[in-house]
Design brief:
- By secondary structure, the protein is an all-alpha fold.
- Helix content is 64%, strand content 3%.
- The chain has three domains: 45 residues, no CATH class; 234 residues, MFS general substrate transporter like domains (Growth Hormone, Chain: A, Up-down Bundle); 193 residues, Up-down Bundle (Growth Hormone, Chain: A), CATH 1.20.1250.
- The strands form two sheets. It has a three-stranded antiparallel β-sheet, with no helix packed on it. A two-stranded antiparallel ribbon has the order 4-5.
- It is globular and about 115 Å long.
- The chain starts with 9 loop residues before the first helix and ends in a 14-residue tail after the last helix.
- The N terminus and C terminus are likely disordered.
- It is a multi-pass membrane protein.
Length: 569
C-alpha cells in the first residue's frame, strides 16, 4: 500500500521541475483553483486505516471481522452470497433477495462462530452410559448359559453358535455403517425448517446439486438413537423365552447395534484423550456388575428371564440420554450449512475451471471414493485389525476357559473359583480406567511402549499359569492378566486414530471391532476343539502361543506417527 503524502500549501503542489513554466496542465489549473479557496496554512491528514493485523479471523469462521476507523463496532464481510460461478449474470449483479453484504458483528454472532464442542460433558457422560449398558448385556451370557441349556435343551454346539450370531451381527453392522451414516446424515441445505434426513437413499449427487449435503452431527445423532432402540430389543427377545432361533436373532441384533454404537469410539478418541479409556473401562465394569446382579437375583428364586426385563429400564434411560444430549444444536446446524455452501461453491468453481459445462448441458455426477474402500486399502488398517483379532481371541479364551482349567488341573474349590472371571473383568476395568487417566500425559511413542510392556507382562502371567501348580496363584495371575489386558484395546484404538486418516475413522473403528468379535468367536472354537482332543492342560499352551504372537506383531508397529498417505485426508 502506498502511503498518502500530506499536502501543506499551494507552493508544495506547484513545486517541481516544471514549476517555472507559464503554461500549466489543465489538471494542475483545476487543482490551483480549488486550493486558492482554502486558507493557506491548512493541513490535510491522511485517513487512518486499520492495518490487517487487527483482523479477527479463525479457520472455523464463516465471516471476517475488520475494525472500522473511528468506530468501536466491527464490519463483517460475508464470504457466501447467492452469486453462482456458473450464473449468466455478471459478478456485479445485485440479488434483491440477498442480505446486505455487510453487517455489524454482535455478541450473538460471535457465539455462533466460536468452534467449541457443544454439550461435551453431557455427551461424554451419555456415551459412557451407553458403553456401560453394552457391557451389561454382554457380560451376563456366562451366568445364564446353564439355565438356557437346561430349559431349551441346548448342546455345546448350539451354545457356541450364539457367539457365531454375535460375529454375524458385527460384520453386517461393519459393512452397513457407512451407508447408514450417509443416508441419515443427508439434509436439505436451503430448507428454512429443521433438517431431516433425505428420503431418497443411495442417490448419486450431481456437481450442481447444491440442495442436499451431509452432516456428521446429524448422522451421529440418528444412528446412536436408532442403535440404542435396536439394542433394547435384545432384552425383550431374551426375556420372551421364545426358543433358540429367537435367542440367536437377539444376539445378532445386539452385536449389530453395538457395532453402530462403536462409532462413538471415534467421537471419544477425537475428543479428550482420556475419554476412550474411561468409556471402555465402564464397559468392562458393566460386564463385571451384571453377572453379580443376575446371580443374586437367581439365588433369591426369581426366574432368570426377569433379569432381562429389568434391564429394559437401563435401556430406556440409555435411549433418553442419547436423544437429549446428541441432538444437534443451533450452532452445529449453522456450521454444517455454512460448510455445505462453502463446499458447493468450491466444487462448482473447480468444475468450471477444469472446463466443465454449465447446468444447461446436463448434470455431471461426481465420483466419491468410499471410506470403506479407503480403509481396506490401508496397510495399517489390516495391521491393527489383525492385532485386535488376536487380542480378543486371547481375552475370550482366557476368561472363558480359566474356571474349567483350574477345576480340572489345579483342584480348585468349586464354591469360590467362579469369582475368577469377575476378577479378570475387574482387573480389566481398573486397567482401562488407569489407562484413560494416563493417556493425556503420554506421547504416541510412550503409549506404544506401555502397551508393549503390558503384553510382555501378560506373557509372564500366562507362563505362571502354565508352570506354577497352585490354584490361588493361578487365580491371582488371571486377575493380573485382566489388569494388564485392560489398556491394550483402548490403546490400540487410540493409536489407530493417530495413524489412520480422519476420513476413515468411523469405518476403521467398526472394522477393528468386527475383527475383534471374529477373534472372540474363532479362538474359543479352536480352544474347545484342542481341549477336546488334548485335554484341559493344552489351554495354557494355546494362551501362551497367542500372547507371544501378539508381542511379536506389536513390535513391528511404528513408534512414531507415520506420514499420511497422499491423496487421503
Amino acid at each position: 500500500m502506498v502511503p498518502l503524502t500530506p499536502v501543506t500549501s499551494r507552493e508544495d503542489i506547484l513545486s517541481g521541475p516544471d514549476s517555472d513554466s507559464r503554461t500549466l496542465h489543465p489538471d494542475v489549473e483545476a487543482l490551483e483553483c480549488i486550493m486558492s479557496s482554502i486558507p493557506k496554512h491548512t493541513r490535510f491528514d491522511a485517513p487512518t486505516i486499520s492495518p490487517l493485523s487487527h483482523v479477527r479471523t479463525s479457520e472455523y469462521d464463516t465471516t471476517v471481522a475488520v475494525p472500522r476507523h473511528g468506530s468501536r463496532r466491527n464490519s463483517v464481510i460475508q464470504p457466501y452470497s447467492d452469486y453462482s460461478p456458473y450464473s449468466s449474470s455478471p459478478s456485479t449483479a445485485v440479488n434483491s433477495r440477498a442480505p446486505s453484504p455487510t453487517k455489524d458483528l454482535d455478541e450473538k454472532d460471535e457465539e455462533l462462530l466460536v468452534p467449541v464442542h457443544d454439550r461435551l460433558k453431557w455427551r461424554l457422560a451419555s456415551g459412557f452410559f451407553a458403553l456401560f449398558v453394552g457391557g451389561w448385556a454382554d457380560g451376563v451370557t456366562g451366568t445364564v448359559m446353564p439355565y438356557l441349556s437346561a430349559q431349551f435343551h441346548m448342546n455345546s454346539t448350539m451354545s457356541s453358535s450364539l457367539f457365531a450370531g454375535t460375529t454375524c451381527g458385527v460384520f453386517v453392522g461393519t459393512f452397513l455403517v457407512e451407508s447408514i451414516m450417509k443416508y441419515l446424515g443427508a439434509f436439505g441445505v436451503h430448507r428454512n425448517a429443521g433438517s431431516f434426513f433425505s428420503l431418497v437413499p443411495f442417490r448419486k449427487r450431481a456437481v450442481f446439486d447444491d440442495n442436499v449435503s451431509y452432516s456428521v452431527v446429524q448422522a451421529r445423532f440418528y444412528i446412536l438413537v436408532m442403535a440404542s432402540i435396536l439394542h433394547s430389543t435384545y432384552f425383550i427377545m431374551m426375556g420372551s423365552q421364545s426358543g433358540f432361533p429367537v435367542m440367536f436373532l437377539a444376539y445378532v441384533m445386539s452385536a449389530f447395534s453395538r457395532t453402530l454404537l462403536s462409532g462413538s469410539n471415534a467421537y471419544f478418541a477425537e475428543g479428550p484423550k482420556e475419554a476412550l479409556g474411561y468409556g471402555l473401562g465402564l464397559a468392562s465394569l458393566g460386564s463385571v456388575i451384571s453377572p453379580l446382579v443376575c446371580q443374586s437375583i437367581i439365588a433369591t428364586g426369581v426366574p432368570w428371564f426377569h433379569f432381562y426385563y429389568g434391564s429394559l429400564v437401563l435401556s430406556g434411560l440409555n435411549v433418553l440420554f442419547l436423544f437429549a444430549t446428541f441432538r444437534p444444536t443451533a450452532r452445529e446446524t449453522f456450521r454444517d450449512r455454512q460448510t455445505a455452501l462453502h463446499d458447493d461453491r468450491q466444487r462448482k468453481s473447480a468444475f468450471l475451471q477444469a472446463g466443465g459445462a454449465a447446468p444447461a448441458d446436463g448434470p455431471v455426477e461426481s465420483v466419491a471414493q468410499s471410506a470403506l474402500r479407503l480403509a481396506l486399502a490401508l496397510p495399517y488398517q489390516w495391521a491393527f485389525s489383525c492385532f485386535v483379532f488376536l487380542y480378543c481371541g486371547s481375552e475370550t479364551t482366557t476368561q472363558g476357559f480359566m474356571v474349567s482349567y483350574l477345576l480340572s488341573t489345579r483342584d480348585a474349590n468349586p464354591k469360590t473359583i467362579g469369582y475368577v472371571t469377575s476378577g479378570f473383568w475387574g482387573g480389566a476395568s481398573i486397567g482401562r480406567i488407569i489407562w484413560g487417566y494416563c493417556t493425556p500425559r503420554l506421547s504416541f511413542t510412550q503409549r506404544k511402549y506401555v502397551i508393549h510392556a503390558c503384553i510382555c507382562g501378560g506373557v509372564a502371567m500366562h507362563l505362571t499359569i502354565l508352570l506354577v501348580r497352585s490354584a490361588p496363584a493361578d487365580a491371582g495371575a488371571a486377575s493380573l492378566i485382566g489388569l494388564l489386558y485392560g489398556p491394550i484395546f483402548p490403546g490400540c484404538l487410540g493409536l489407530a486414530i493417530d495413524v489412520l486418516p480422519a476420513a476413515v475413522h468411523m469405518v476403521a473403528m467398526a472394522l477393528i471391532s468386527s475383527f475383534g468379535s471374529l477373534g472372540g468367536a474363532v479362538f474359543p472354537l479352536i480352544a474347545g476343539a484342542v481341549i477336546g482332543a488334548r485335554g484341559e492342560p493344552s489351554l495354557a499352551y494355546l494362551n501362551v502361543a497367542l500372547i507371544g504372537t501378539m508381542a511379536v506383531l506389536w513390535a513391528f508397529f511404528p513408534a512414531r506417527v507415520p506420514a499420511r498417505l497422499t491423496g487421503v485426508s
